[in-house]
Request: fold
Amino acid sequence: MKRVVIVGGGISGLTAAYKIKKKSSEANLPIEVLLIEEKERLGGIFLTEKANGFLIEGGPDSFESEKPHTLALAEELGIAHQVIGCDEEAHLTFIFWNNKLWQLPRGLLALAPARISSILFCPLLSWSGKIRALLDFMIPPLGDKDEEISLAEFYKRRFGKEIFDRVAEPLLGSIYACIPEIISIRSCWPRALILEKEYGSLLRGMLARGRMAREGTKAGEKKLPIFMTFREGMCELTKALADYIGSENLITGRKAVSLRENSGKGFTLLLDDAGAITADACILATAPSHATAEIVRDIDPGLTDILLKIPYVSSATISLGYKREKFSHPLQGFGVLVSRQEKLQVKAISWCSTKFAYRSPEGYVLIRCFMGTAEDEGIVYQSDEEVLKVVKEELKKIMGINSEPILTKIYRWENSMPQYLLGHEKRVRFIEQRLTHKYQGLYLVGNAYYGIGINDCIHNATQAAERAIEFLLK
Ligand SMILES: Cc1cc2nc3c(=O)[nH]c(=O)nc-3n(C[C@H](O)[C@H](O)[C@H](O)COP(=O)(O)OP(=O)(O)OC[C@H]3O[C@@H](n4cnc5c(N)ncnc54)[C@H](O)[C@@H]3O)c2cc1C
Reply:
């Protein structure tokens, strides 16, 4: 029997373990899996809690339907019937800019504008800003240059500074918690480069894709809501994965401290309780990548150095429940994104009880604030009292909320958001080459490499699982 040891029990590690166990039981392969997680709780950043009838997500609250991987995994696990979509009727997003809330036209909700009308009718933009954004149709693609450019530079070149500052930057802040001037377009938003290359303009590309989607819908394909989650919260997914993997293949409360290579015959993983596990292949699904760096330090200090070069930002989510009758805001929409120009600590507010059903009991509402970006993560380390004081002050400023919440929950996520800085692609390529040439049977997965979204993590972990099986059957 061959053994694959997987370190890290977040969505990446759980997916890899599930895929290997499923494939080996279906095809009757002589392969077993063992997953090691440092914490007693599995799920990593996935954390769903119930309190006073509210369903609260401490970590991710949804996945995007644009990529198929999460939904496909739910289907495989037999829990697709638990998937619920966001309330498309209430699909409005606001931007807090210039001390005011502005409703964003629907076509501007993705990073690139999806409709011409969304630019023309965007109340946030001046006429010169609108005309500049439409010049995208005429700006030639950058071509296959080796030199990388930042997301901000790419966006401003195509659409201009005004729409970048007022629309794109707040959207980016809520997705990547990043400084757009220093993150890589190639690693964070590769689709934009593909569309630019294929259609000569991003707007033209978005319009063509929109047309294809509409034709697909007309042809009988079901249009999925843009955001989806599970009726009982995102942890339904990690729980289903853990149930399938089985407690006999899971070790929690043990930290992996070091990996040794057994002269080309597999690996030995040393644990913090002085235990050692031997394996024929190893998948490190640890996050942040700094944790992975420590595990491989003994076998490859060069790999450690590269892994340490991927920076992370700490973030926090703060959920607040209110009595509906005492709440002054109608919450018609999905929430608010805050422009960095406003210099506030709250970067986004999700109107959870409007966005998804079953999040708050009858007569109550639930909202969630997101704090911590690369420019400003200090707030995450303040006391609960200080965090709540700032949140309440800023909610009053942004949404005019005066009422006292009846429930508050703070979740801090230290070093949770990887930053794909310029040069990220080269660093990841170096890691891949190092593994392929020197450590056959060792794989690194997780949000540090090929995308931070849940879909990307699942896709990356699935590929590593397939490669590990292929390696073991050689
Ligand atoms: C607040 C927040 C909200 C988000 N919201 C969304 C969203 O709505 N939609 C979306 O698509 N994405 C979202 N993301 C991104 C997405 O949730 C993450 O990228 C993804 O969950 C990361 O999963 P992972 O398994 O790679 O890492 P993690 O979930 O961090 O798991 C890594 C695991 O490794 C363990 N570990 C580390 N070191 C060791 C060691 N030495 N030994 C043993 N175990 C170890 C850790 O304890 C942890 O459990 C969000 C991220 C954050 C921080």
Q: What stands out?
A: The pocket of flavin-adenine dinucleotide is lined by residues 7-13, 36-39, 44-45, 59-63, 255-256, 285-287, 291, 295, 315, 317, 413, 416-417, 446-447, 452-454, 457 (CB under 6 Å).
